[in-house]
Amino acid sequence: MGNTLQNIYQGTCPSCNKGKIFKKKGLLYKLRMPKMHAHCSVCKYKFEKEPGYFFGAMYVSYMLTIAGAVGLFIMLSYIVGIGDNFQIFLMIAAAMIGLSFFNMRISRTIWIHLFKT
Ligand SMILES: [Zn+2]
Fold first, then answer.
1. DSSP 47-81
2. 19, 41, 55, 81 - which has most CB atoms within 10 Å?
3. 54-72 residue pLDDT tens
4. HSE-up of residue 45 (Cα within 13 Å, Cβ side)
């Protein structure tokens, strides 16, 4: 399990744990989406098994977003002590936009690792 988490964090192939899933990290300020390799460069594992395979990764992404928003809300409201909910909402929205590419990358990686065959 610890290895799986480490692989997800590093974005490596679920089969050999060596090849990278993504070619490049996306750059939000250039609006460049993260690009994936079609196959693992080390073991030829096919990442996108069929068209639309990553549709379900949106649910992972959604759950990560909710978990992140709830976590941020608790942190800003109770630990930082910001009383204004609207201000907190704006901060959360900004954080979610800032993390959206990272979120997409990590949710697809989790998806690949969940359904590795
Ligand atoms: Zn591989």
1. SS-STTGGGTHHHHHHHHHHHHHHHHHHIIIIII-
2. 19
3. 999 999 999 999 999 999 9
4. 20
Residue-wise pLDDT tens digits, 26-50: 777 777 888 899 999 999 999 999 9
Q: Compute, in angstroms, the gap from residue 97 CA to the centroid of ligand 1.
A: 31
Instruction: For residue 39, report the distance from its CA to the centre of ligand 1, in Å.
Output: 8
Q: How far does the centroid of ligand 1 lie from the alpha carbon of residue 50, in Å?
A: 18
Mean pLDDT of the chain: 91
User: From ligand 1's centre to the CA of 14, what distance in Å?
Assistant: 7
